[in-house]
Please model this.
Amino acid sequence: MGRKFALGYLVLLTVIMAGVLHYGFTQGDFFEDGGELIENPWGIVSLFDVYVGFFLVIGWIVYRENCLGKTLAWSVAILIGGNLVSALYALIALLRSGGDSKAFFLGEEKARSPMNSES
Model:
């Protein structure tokens, strides 16, 4: 499993998430249905779980990026756009990494740092 698998996986997740969001926005009432979700204990648990996931990805972005503006922009975008934006960020990171796992996980600058080279 290499870069092609990871690329296909991330593209698939991004497309699925976009489709599910489209379904939700076209078939449901965001505010009415959201209100019902908040009234249900498992709805609250689910929202908490989703937001913890958002902040895990945001933590990766904070570690990976060197530009505060870019970090803030991606963070706000994830909090508004959800996992569709997270998947898009991961897809862009994978494409920019050129298949280098260190560059993907650490960011290009940190991956090139002598502190991160294998001894």
